[in-house]
Amino acid sequence: MMLLDPKHCADLESPSLANFGVALFIIVGIFTSYLPQHHRLISRRTSEGLSPYFVLLGTVSQTYAFANILTLPASRGNMACCSQISGFECFAGLVPIIQLGVQYLCFVFIFFLWILFFPHATALAPPSTLSSSPSTRTAVSVTAVCIGNTLLTFIVSLLVIYLAPSSLQAYANALGIAGTLLACAQYFPQIWTTWRLQSVGSLSIPMMCMQTPGSFVFAASLAANLGWSGWSSWGLFVFTGVLQGVVLVMGLTFLVREKRHKEGLKRIGSADSESSTGLSVVEERSEDGSQEDSGGQGQDERTPLLRE
User: Fold this and answer.
1) Which residues lie closer than 8 Å to 213 by C-beta, 6 or more apart?
2) What is the pLDDT of residue 213?
């Protein structure tokens, strides 16, 4: 149940065009920032390198973040006012919900691709090569927890909205705090996985490059729309931005090291090729000299032109 607040609706009738433009830019940025990760998983056709706990905690935290913005009284007030204001003003008031909705769907698609391209033992990739990969049981458990948590959150949110509307602020804050804690914890398994593999694997560095600074811009945009009462929504992205920066620095370090290693191997290969070519030339010249010596053996200035 959503109650109309005439004063709140009046505030929505004059949206800031600057804030609205920034908010739209962030929506496009959120969607674009996830595309490199989607492309990397689809192009590599394997989710190796993505920690199952990163996917699990990320999906659960994004579910809580989206439920938080949907149940937050300020957001519900914006939705209720849509029947009293113009379409543009309504859209401007719902921008925070759209932002978190886009982010939620983008991460859920990563979850889907992680399951779809989960590494299995094949003739080309026997079990011995997948010893460091998570087991199929882990993948099934992660899937069950994510789906079960989504359904449970949806049911509990409906119950609170219709049976205890006075507790919505406290419930939304609890969801925001839980989402923040899980989002922070989400990056520790990925940090460990990246460190253990000493490689980025299927983790997209371009995505991290866009999302690390984007998290702080996103937090500022949400704070401008929701104010301090929405701290449980925008605070999440401040913490995740810091941890994303850690993963980004680690990934860039490993990429630079891999590039230098490949360049070193290429130089060694070129040097070996040049030395082999030089030895071949020397051997050919030696063989030619031997043939000339054998062809002219016993002939000097005292050798008669005609032999008897």
Assistant:
1) 241
2) 85
Q: Which has more pLDDT, 154 or 30?
A: 154
User: Which residues does 90 contact at the CB level (< 8 Å), separation at least 6?
Assistant: 12, 78, 81, 82
Residue 128: the pLDDT is 45
What phi and psi, each to the nearest 5 degrees, are found at residue 163? Answer: -105, -25
pLDDT recorded at residue 10: 83
For 224, the token pair is 């401008």
Q: Which residue has the tokens 């674009």?
A: 32
Say if residue 11 is exposed, middle or buried (CB neighbours under 10 Å; 0-12, 13-18, 19+). Answer: middle
What residues contact residue 67 under an 8 Å CB cut-off, 6+ apart?
Answer: 153, 154, 157, 175
The residue whose two tokens read 């379409």 is 87
Q: Strand (E) positions, the chain? A: none
* pLDDT tens by residue, 253-294: 888 888 887 777 777 766 666 565 555 555 555 555 555 555
